[in-house]
Input
Amino acid sequence: MFCLIIVTIQKHPNLPDPYWRSVLSKVISLSISFRSHHFLCALGFEGKGYSAAFIDNFQNIVDRLRGPEGDSIEIEVVPMVDDICNVCPSRRDTLCHTQEKIDTLDQAHTQVLGLNVGDRITWGAAKRRISERVSMDVFERMCAPCSWKNLGICEKAIQTLQNQMKPQD
Ligand code: SF4
Output
């Protein structure tokens, strides 16, 4: 019964306020939803974003992922707006103001990371895939349309992750 209530709240299309839907899903559910390119955004997030509410929401998500139990948190791959988009000023219902660019990013990340819509993958497994599959050349291609790329934040985060996951001698 409790699970049914959670699923109803998370999926109900008529809940009017995406912010409260997002808050409710944080309070009562441990799972997170990401569109494909947001796995890499979550790895690199450093407190920058499109509005105070957006940054606050994103920070709450990455605090959970970077916490002691973060690697075991399951993330559902979704094809449209996700838990990061929910409070974004660029969100237009289930789409994004820059949907064409976002589609290009999502397609590239889906392919490189081997994701399928509906997959549930732990944050630890997602980081392993990023570490193994995203060389700097691949990063340059898969994130080419992203307006945040030139800040160098994601590049640094990928290199740090790859150093952490390097097999020890
Ligand atoms: S810019 Fe678009 S894809 Fe990015 S978080 Fe906002 S709504 Fe989502």
Notes: Residues 81, 84-85, 88, 90-91, 96, 102 surround iron/sulfur cluster (CB under 6 Å). Residues 99-113 form the longest helix (15 residues).
